[in-house]
Amino acid sequence: VTGTGSGFCIDGAGVVLTNAHVVEDADSLGIQLQNGKSYKGYVVGMHSELDLAVVKVDVKDDRLPSVRDVD
After folding, report:
1. How far, in Å, CA of 29 to CA of 64, rounded?
2. Distance between CA 50 and CA 28 in Å, rounded?
3. 10: Cβ–Cβ under 8 A, 6 or more apart, which residues?
4. Comparing C-alpha atoms, which of 11, 27, 17 is closest to residue 51?
5. Which residues fall within 8 angstroms of residue 69, CB to CB, at 6 or more apart?
6. Is 20 helix (H, G, I), strand (E, B) or coil?
7. Residue 28 burial (CB count, 10 A)
8. pTM for the complete prediction?
């Protein structure tokens, strides 16, 4: 099953915050940024009641644009 959702990078090293319902049944995760770059990721933690999930993205040598970068 393939689904889509949204999230945002909270750290340029590849930490993404999204909704738990988006990733709760996922066997694998793919992340695509607005600029078209794609990455693989995995769930680090999830809180179903708050509907929050933390995903770690394998960015290798890249740095993701994050909310910390916004002035």
Report:
1. 16
2. 22
3. 16, 17, 66, 67, 68
4. 17
5. 12
6. helix
7. 7
8. 0.84
- Residue tagged 């689904």 (tokens): 3
Indicate the range of 2-6, 46-50, 55-59 predicted with least confidence: 2-6
At residue 46, φ and ψ (nearest 5 deg) are -150, 145
- pLDDT attached to residue 65: 81
Q: Is pLDDT at 1 greater than 60 in this prediction?
A: no
DSSP state of 9: E
Per-residue pLDDT reduced to its tens digit, 9-32:
999 899 999 999 999 988 889 998
Do 37 and 27 form a contact (C-beta atoms < 8 A)?
A: no
